[in-house]
Design brief:
Layout: H1 3-29, E1 45-55, E2 64-76, E3 83-85, E4 97-99, H2 105-141
Antiparallel strand pairs: 1-2, 3-4
Amino acid sequence: MLLSKSFGISGSGLTAERLRLDIIAANLANANSTRTPEGGPYRRKVAVLEARQAPTFAGIFGGIEPCGVRVARIAEDQTEFPVRYEPGHPDADASGYVKMSNVNVVNEMVDLITATRAYEANATAMNAAKTMARKALELGKA
């Protein structure tokens, strides 16, 4: 594999994980939002990642080579909204119950840690490829 492909693969991972971090931040910011422009409480969003693949020279014969990751789409979590009894809340129904956002702060924090670790792993892989490229150039000097 060429070193330039390593940079591209790690770069795509960095981009995907950064978007995941942005989505997680938006979920956390809206964890208590009971009203949205679309109506109803905020619905948790999730990044759906998929492998990017590129045809190789052997692709003429059906070969495919992995070349990173990309965000396929941003999906909405379809779990039910929890309800809370708050009769004084402006969004309460006639019985005094309020539909809350389906964002679970604990799950978001776990996702935040995994996205951060994946981002760090991609940065480490990119730095390793950069070090290898630098060492290869030093071989030519000797």
